Amino acid sequence: MNTESRMNPDTSRAPVSQKPQVIHPHSNEGDVGALVRVNIDGQEIKVPLGTTILEAAKRLGIHIPTLCHHADLCSAGLCRICVVEVEGMRTLQASCAYPISSPMTILTHTRKVRSARRHVVDLLLSEHVGECYTCFRNNNCELQSLSKEMGVTHFRFGQRTEHHHKPDNSSYSVVRDMDKCVLCRRCVRTCIDLQEVGVLEACHRGSETAIETFHDKPLGEVVCINCGQCINRCPTGALRANDPTEQIWHLIDDSTKHVVIQTAPAPRAAIGECFGCAPGTPLTFEMNTALRLCGFDKAFDTNFTADLTIIEEGTELLLRLHRALVQGDKEAALPQFTSCSPGWVKYLEHFYPEYIPNLSSAKSPQQMFGAVIKTYYAQLHGIDPKDIVTVALMPCSAKKYECNRPEMVDSGHKDVDFGLTTRELAQMFQEAGIDLPNLPKSEFDDPFGTATGSGVIFGATGGVMEAALRTVIEVVCGIQVENLFDHADIIPLRGFDGIRYVELPIRDVGPVIPMFKPLVDSWSWLKGATLKVAVAHGTANAKKVMEDIKAGGRLSECHFIEFMGCPGGCIGGGGQPIPTSPEIRAARAKAIYAEDSSYKVRKSHENPAVLELYTKFLTDGPCGHLSHKLLHTHYQARGRFIA
Amino acid sequence: MLVLEREGLGRLIRELCDRHGRSRPALLPILQELQETQGWISDYAMQAVARHLDIHPVEVYSVITFYAFLNSEKKGRFVIRLCRTISCDMRDKDRVARQLEQELGVKFGQTTADGRFTLEWSNCMGMCDQGPALMVNKQIFTQISPERAHEIIESCRRIYALYPERSEDTALEAAGAVQVLAGPLALEARS
Amino acid sequence: MSSKNHPSILFRESQPDEGLKKAVGLKRVDVISMVRESGLRGRGGAGFPTGVKWNFAALAQDETKYVVCNADEGEPGTFKDRVLLTERTDLVLEGMTIAGRTIGAKEGIIYLRGEYDYLRRHLEAVIARREQANLLGDDILGTAGFSFRIHVHMGAGAYVCGEETALIESMEGHRGEPRNRPPFPVNTGYMGHPTVVNNVETFALAARVVALGAETFAKVGLASSTGTKLFSVSGDCTRPGVYELPMGLTIEELLREVGGEDAKAVQVGGASGTCVPHKAFTRRLAFDDASTGGSIIVFGPQRDMLRVARNFMEFFDEESCGQCTPCRRGNRVLLEGIEKLEQGVCTLTYLSELKALGESMQLASKCGLGQSSPNAFLSIVEHFKDEILARQTA
Ligand SMILES: Cc1cc2nc3c(=O)[nH]c(=O)nc-3n(C[C@H](O)[C@H](O)[C@H](O)COP(=O)(O)O)c2cc1C
Ligand code: SF4
Ligand code: SF4
Ligand code: SF4
Ligand code: SF4
Ligand code: FES
Ligand code: FES
Fold first, then answer.
1. Which of A182, A320, B149, C251 could pair with C281 as two cysteines, CB 3.0-4.6 Å apart?
2. Which of A64, A118, A119, A184 best probes binding to C when mutated, by most C CB atoms within 10 angstroms?
3. How many angstroms separate the CA atoms of B106 and B119, rounded?
4. To test the ligand 1 pocket, which listed residue (C164, C195, C331, C373) has its Cβ within 8 A of the most ligand atoms?
5. Superfamily of domain C18-218 in the CATH hierarchy
6. CATH number of C305-389
7. Same domain for B92 and B30?
């Protein structure tokens, strides 16, 4: 299926020990074509050369426990929980890292195997500060389940109770508690291979080995982009998001506060997983009910500002194109980059600060919403903005950082007070005894209640670009998207390929709709042009795009590029339910696209609430004066030097 | 760090990278030369190397912490490593250890207040037939008695007077203060 | 260092570069057959047949191949490679050059442990001299197309880098963490190319095999452990040092050579080897019996064996690469167990838990380090149970 985020062995920087290994098979008698015969626990199966023992066992329905293995990552073979006995071999072999290249007979639960696995768990527990009661992974912890699975009844080699490390709380997004680390290095492989950020590594050696940042500095001081992908792949409570639920409860209980929540599209497709639903079970409208039950005063749909983002960002793009094509301005900073993923934004600020001019100055939907609530909404309802608390339900840990950026106070207040992850909201529901999946449905609150399908698909990689193209095609070409793409589904932008590229020739242009009248007289200067766009997700792919642009490759000719910090886009965000895998992300994406199709209005520029905002509040139009003040921002060249 | 110092270090690192190449296998040779000439590898140096090799600084740090002879913390001008593995242990390395501690006024794992000496343990250095063995920076000394430990430290002090800055380790030899062991005793002599 | 009763292979008088000169006149397959027939097995510890290894690498399809000389010699009590590199430098380089020609490699690398930094200049001088003498470089000995160069790569203080895949990781600029196998270095080694990794002594012996012929070599020693072996002897004996002796001598015989007759135990194979008590001194020093990469440590009657065990465990606790659970954590748990024993507060139940743990470590660890680190502890506990339990107050 989709191999989107599985790293490419050729470009990965992982040490060879952790790469998928290349097998140069010698021809063996038992080989049939490229298939090898293996016998596992008495069952025969033929598998392609190079299949791991773990994979072969899975095909036979034989369960082998794993810990350091992860579907998104290259194999490491280091926790040794998955060992099996191979006939003719003196030692046990790690099934996750053993590629089958000749016929073999394997036993998966002999005395030796069971004893070794038990010992692995015993050893891990002996250095683990086990505080399951107070741990956010209680009941969803791989170490816990392994102990159960292995039948651990006592701490054979003792249990650590004293703390050796202080939790690192320096980051707005990610908290590291190394007393709970089992050294599986999934976070290391995530950060270096999958994300190419390179914040975490195994350091020191022997029993001193530990996962550290550069010179063991606090996470808030290194180049971490807050994507939280490491959290999603950590098997234990060693990594978690910075959790604001206590403060939010407190504010909900405070009757002088008006607590509103905006909910992004991706959490709805995933929150059910925390309640035992299958991945991709949409609970959008049940969630609205639950939020009100919880005590939130209003439940808004972030899709509203997603549509707004499309208008602002799309306008900005058209203005840049105008500068470049009509005024011949070489400084027009094309391609324009999307700026709605705060992980990606920080990545660019650290690693490609010279490209900051290319970033769209439009804020992310989260931050636009915050600014609109504390201005427009406050005016409309006559509430003092200082009494409004804006919470943002996001699939993302980087959003916690984004809302704390010092410049995000354009409403005169902190625009968004809290970023709350899908996992944390599920926890709040559970605490309140709310049985989410079985609640009645209810609608979002007005005046931002009307959303479009375009806003929804922001949640999946390619969605922003699809939404933008839907609008650009109609606004500029004056035709229905449906004339070009069935059901307005721009299929080439969908899926999980790391980088996707699409060209759209503008054969004809239409009249300028009223919203854009203040900006341009006609679109004729775009006639005959070909709009070139690209999509990338996961910062490792972003890096490839940036390197191509730097080298003057094909992507440097793009006009607009969508970047998402996380593999799969927001549905794979660092605040989403754990676990994650390509299959789980695909199921969530499916739910998102299904919700899109279910909407009557599917194009941002047709969102009546957005149009109303421009007529009533942002009266000088998209990219106008007020929108610049409230809906646009600036960035900071951070560079990668760690002081 | 002073800007000038930083510039000098930056130049040195560029030169090292030019000489050893900018691929990953060049990492250890580059770090080894930095270690040898600077006595340690600073945060700035780690990041400069990472930049040249196009790898992440944390990878450089991770590699440095793995190897006993590379360090990301400043150590003394002379790093004295006494072998504590079995054969040297059986030859009374503990007496030598006590002598060193007294002489320097620090415990193992510590650096003297004047920054001249760091005292450390080391594992077997392949001189087991001539133990106890110790290393001063990259130089190996064997058959160490407490008296000889004292002499070695005295020699280091004399070298320090001549070469307070760390430079090529050959300073140890050049100073003529320490009798340098050219290698193990000749085979013939011991058959 | 060879005794009068036992003729030397490595240190006997011989024509310089006899083996290499012979090898350039032979077909590559013939060199492989010769090494195979000599029965030469790797001297680094594992004892893998050298001819078989060379054959795998020779068969591997790749333009680029490497020959790596493992001079990381870090096993406690081992120092024979240091002596070879000092005294028989040419022979080692000759062996590498023969291996290069045999497998089709143009580049050889000596991975020299950081502690032996003082040898580096010497090695590089000999390499330079051999280049001048056309024994290295292009068209070696006038043989068109036979190119081979050698350079020295310094280790930086890590015992585990002696493990061949860790060594390759280290040469590639990474932490010295052993790789998953398969694939093996002969297929996918340094920079992804087929790589032969052999011990210093193995190369030297291979050169002698080609010079003297397989038969002369195979006549020495036992049928399954042919030739001579260098032993590094230290500890409680009157004549410590390096000895070249035929494979298959008994421990008793060796102790007589080195003046260690009153030993109560001998550690064969260093920290990762086993402790052989007095009553088993008739065991033979050979691959299929008491096997060693060269380390022989003699313990006199007064030695405290628990202190020995603790010393070894401390070594592994520090030198483990820290990658896999059984070794990273297991060594520490065993070490803490030994401390309990020393204090006399270890119950017999806990002692048997520790033994079971040691067995799991031997089976489930990722590389030879963790697979052998419990050996010393297990054998000492087995053979010196009374001595150890005498301390127990519980
Ligand atoms: C922890 C560990 C350390 C090792 N150290 C060395 C060493 O220092 N020198 C060596 O030649 N082989 C060492 N080996 C064995 C090597 O992995 C490898 O088997 C050997 O270099 C192959 O050469 P040979 O076939 O000539 O013995 C070590 C193995 C392990 C597991
Ligand atoms: S990480 Fe898992 S085992 Fe550890 S305290 Fe948390 S829930 Fe318990
Ligand atoms: S949040 Fe992202 S960038 Fe930061 S350490 Fe985790 S994976 Fe790396
Ligand atoms: S922090 Fe989590 S993912 Fe990283 S090594 Fe520790 S347990 Fe594994
Ligand atoms: S056995 Fe020890 S040295 Fe080997 S890979 Fe595991 S932790 Fe590293
Ligand atoms: S899951 Fe296979 S070694 Fe960890
Ligand atoms: S034991 Fe000290 S040098 Fe080997």
1. C251
2. A119
3. 7
4. C164
5. NADH-ubiquinone oxidoreductase 51kDa subunit (3.40.50.11540)
6. 1.20.1440.230
7. no
